[in-house]
TrEMBL record:
One MF term in the entry's GO annotations: sugar-phosphatase activity
Pfam family, one: His_Phos_2
Name assigned to this protein: 4-phytase/acid phosphatase
Key words of the record: Hydrolase, Signal
Protein family (similarity comment): Belongs to the histidine acid phosphatase family.
Length: 448
């Protein structure tokens, strides 16, 4: 095993120097109010019209972001997923981090759904190609993000010549603005309830034990790198009040089970066929249960107040700027921001959002799912913004059924914490703008 592979195992356990991109946990002050399973948002009142929508989406299923085929890794790899356990992980047939072939079809289905959904409300044509400049797509330069935007375009407007796609590497990343890893770690620990160890031994204990059974013994070299005696398993990875340990170590492997299942691998190959036995559930249910680890880890890392403000101000500014245009009736009425799970979590933290979508644990950011910021105009008065999360369930990702307004993906309206809710949980535009401005750190927003 290479030194880089050993380093990634130790780094995953300690939580040092890793960019965590993902999903759901509970803040210290939120443990008493778990979000409930989402249902379709209530219809807006009669006579209200949809002015436009800004969709903040996560990319679709991807290959592991850590190298899997370690012997062929070139140069000085950052790490290797195979360093986690003794049995090899499937590569899923793509370059690390790239969109899976199966993911294109799933995201394309989401595009068809957006077309049908928003044609009903009059901002998209029911048939044919859109009016020039009426739709707009944004992506950063990561392959999986650009390909996701293309798949959504393909699903919405097959055969149409649409060139309104902006690809910009720093579109969602602002300046460093004095970011401190120490302050980030302190904020995350507080947001996790004050102790990572308490979380690992409490609400995450069952999920950790199940994934430990799925992975099995770790490689002897990994045990040594972690300061453990061989044989060892993931459950032996030390976790303290301030160090996420086993939670961070198992976060990436937990989400990989969704990729394996969603890409169509036989259940006998998903998690080496051990998920059902390890959890006592069906494979899909077991994957959702195990992903409490990933959801908790990424929600805490990305939605804690410090990280949400310092890393999320730029993306919230992009969302707000696009909404401002929609409110003013300028430019495209449908705007698709293709991005990553960490950006959705940053925005969720800044706006005080909470969600739990069908088949997923709280605050999971499903692959190919999105938050739609819908601008609605009442017959009189200021417009309102309604936030709706839409995401395919774990089984929908695997089976890729047709999605329509009558048979939709999982849906949940997201009221904003500090806004007096209007119809269907909406927030008046003036209040939304004030809340967003107050939540952002101006120094963390890139000057145009």
């Amino acid at each position: 095993m290479r030194l880089g592979q050993l380093a990634i195992a130790a780094g995953l356990a300690a939580g040092f120097g890793l960019t965590v991109c993902g999903t759901g946990a509970l803040a210290a002050d939120a443990t008493a109010t778990q979000p409930v399973m989402g249902t379709a948002p209530e219809p807006m009142p009669a006579g209200w019209t949809l002015k436009g929508v800004v969709v903040l989406s996560r990319h679709g299923m991807r290959g592991p972001t850590y190298a899997v085929d370690c012997d062929q890794a070139k140069g000085n790899p950052d790490g290797c997923l195979d360093a986690v356990g003794q049995q090899p992980w499937p590569t899923l047939g793509v370059v690390a981090g790239h969109l899976l072939p199966a993911a294109y079809a799933r995201v394309r289905s989401m595009g068809r759904y957006y077309r049908l959904r928003y044609a009903e409300d009059g901002i998209l044509p029911k048939t044919g190609c859109p009016v020039p400049k009426s739709v707009y797509f944004i992506a950063d330069t990561d392959e999986r993000v650009v390909m996701t935007a293309g798949a959504v375009m393909d699903g919405m407007f097959p055969g149409c010549d649409i060139d309104d796609l902006v690809v910009q590497g720093d579109i969602y990343r602002g300046p460093s603005c004095g970011y401190s890893k120490t302050k980030s770690a302190e904020s995350a620990q507080h947001f996790a309830g004050g102790s990572w160890e308490k979380a690992a031994k409490g609400e995450l204990a069952g999920s950790i034990a199940a994934l430990d059974k799925v992975i099995g013994p770790l490689k002897p070299e990994v045990c040594t790198a972690l300061g453990l005696k061989s044989p060892c398993t993931a459950a032996d990875v030390p976790t303290t009040d301030s160090k996420p340990g086993v939670i961070n170590f198992l976060s990436q492997p937990a989400e990989q089970l969704i990729m394996q299942y969603g890409s169509g691998l036989p259940t006998s190959e998903v998690g080496w066929g051990r998920v059902a036995e390890a959890t006592g559930m069906s494979t899909a249910e077991g994957i959702g249960y195990i992903n409490k680890i990933h959801a908790f880890s990424d929600w805490v890392a990305n939605s804690s107040p410090y990280d949400a403000a310092h890393k999320g101000s730029q993306v919230l500014d992009v969302v707000k700027s696009n909404l401002k245009d929609v409110v003013a009736g300028k430019g495209a009425t449908f705007r698709f921001l293709s991005s990553h799970d960490n950006y959705i979590l940053h925005v969720g933290g800044l706006l005080g959002l909470t969600w739990k979508l069908p088949s997923y644990p709280a605050h999971q950011v499903p692959l190919g799912g999105s938050i739609a910021f819908e601008v609605w105009q009442p017959p009189a008065g200021a417009p309102v913004v309604r936030l709706v999360y839409a995401a395919q369930s774990i089984d929908q990702i695997r089976d890729n059924p047709d999605l329509t307004p009558a048979s939709p993906p999982g849906l949940q309206a997201l009221p904003m914490k500090d806004c007096k809710p209007g119809p269907s949980g909406s927030c008046a535009w003036p209040a939304f703008e004030k809340i967003a401005d107050r939540a952002m750190i101006k120094a963390c927003v890139r000057k145009s």
